[in-house]
């Protein structure tokens, strides 16, 4: 990508898309194209085709998605599958039809089998069954990355995919019902501190292990791969480090300043027991993460405090 290349970032208002825009701007790219959902609904095929035909972007970062935690995924299986699969297929297909030079597709580590060998390598995809609570979302993401692979194999395109671990950071979603575990805990412990609550309830028993990557580190990798990687196999994006949900909750409570008790509701699901990515492929290409978890949580909490609209919902 040249500094003046026309680059479309789909989903620029989301956590990942906004981080990619920041990284592109930091590197001096001056021709970044964005559209809000109101301006362009990616689930409407005719509108997407018209946009690509008129704008003719040279490069595409596909970061748009409908996302959520265990509760949201379980409650809206059909919505998560339909909306994600539709917007992915429309965007990737229109990119191919209009001669986009390169496209990067953002997936999720939930595409890997529930009981995949740990840490999970890229080649464990489709080797066994998925985690039931986010199966619909995972199937949509698998379809997107496979469509990129099949276009490469059939038509010689240069479309790549990245599979990040659990993400957090600026512009995250702190919705009380539809957010992921880390931002949900930031909000829950903050509100408990503000209200003087003696106890906070968290889902599961706290034993599940999770890996977390600061979103600006992911954005750096995405731009790096757009410049330096081509291939049909996806690339994992993570830290190679994991933490129990119990330890995560205690860390967030400490950073937020909540001093009450943490109660674990074992009637609620833990989700996948362990999800650690093997990040040796990204490392071999020359990338490694920069932001340690404690530092990243502090940055994320400051971002939450600076977005008062979340505290009013």
Describe the structure.
By secondary structure, this protein is of the alpha/beta class. It is 42% helix and 15% strand. The strands form 4 sheets. The chain has a 6-stranded parallel β-sheet, with helices on both faces. Helix 1 (15-26) crosses helix 7 (215-228), helix 4 runs parallel beside helix 5 (135-155) and helix 8 (245-256) crosses helix 10. The chain is globular, with a radius of gyration of 19 Å. The model has no long low-confidence stretch (mean pLDDT 94).
Q: Work out the number of β strands.
A: 13
Strand order of the largest sheet: 2-1-3-4-5-10
Largest sheet: 6 strands, parallel
Low-confidence stretches: none
The proportion of strand residues reads 5-15%
What Rg do the Cα atoms give? 19 Å
Distance linking N and C termini: 40 Å
- Helix-strand category: alpha/beta
Overall pLDDT score: 94
Helix run count: 10
Helix coverage percent: 40-55%
Query: Could you state the order of secondary-structure elements as H and E?
Result: EHEHEHHEHEEHEEEHEEHEEHH
Rough outline? globular
Oligomer: single chain
Keywords summarizing the entry:
10 helices, alpha/beta, single chain, 313 residues, three-stranded mixed beta sheet, six-stranded parallel beta sheet
In a few lines, what is going on in this structure?
With 313 residues, the chain is α/β, with parallel strands linked by helices.
